[in-house]
Design a protein that fits this description.
mainly beta, 2 helices, 3-stranded antiparallel β-sheet
Length: 151
């Protein structure tokens, strides 16, 4: 089993097909960050670079090394991150109290400082969810067609 590197592309099997994600940050303290591509495939595409060039994608924290060691995901290649690639500066989270949705928290990823907003601007709707998601939740999200717009 080879070491995980930035740019590694992984495959995860769901009940509705194969999904792909790319490792964009390795962080032993706060958790790895992956870029999840929402398109599902019946078979592995002959060219892995095509799976990472889709518009519908989002970033999530994911215990990548644990999932890889347990063979819950399979490394299928490495595509270097573009020179102009930037990690997300902000992510978002629902603000819920006693099961009542009140709005959103916009979270500065470097400081974890939160700003409350009742409604998201178009730019904020493009922010990925903050938090760490395991393989089961990731599969469920992919199978439901979850994306940033319908969250």
């Amino acid at each position: 089993m080879s070491k995980i590197e930035l740019g590694d592309v992984f495959e995860i099997n769901t009940n509705k097909g194969k999904a792909y994600f790319q490792c964009v940050k390795i962080d032993k303290v706060r958790g790895d960050l992956i870029n999840v591509f929402n398109k599902l495939y019946n078979e592995r595409p002959p060219s892995i670079d095509k799976v990472i060039n889709v518009k519908d994608h989002y970033f999530i924290g994911f215990p990548l090394s644990a999932a890889y060691k347990r063979k819950l995901v399979e490394k299928v290649g490495n595509i270097p991150l573009p020179n102009d690639f930037e990690l997300p500066k902000y992510m978002r989270d629902k603000h819920v109290i006693r099961r009542e949705f009140l709005g959103w928290h916009i979270v500065d990823v470097s400081t974890l400082k939160r700003q409350f907003v009742e409604e998201l601007s178009p730019e904020q709707k493009q922010l990925s969810p903050i938090g760490i998601y395991n393989d089961t939740l990731l599969k469920e999200m992919l199978e439901r067609g979850w994306n940033l717009e319908n969250w």
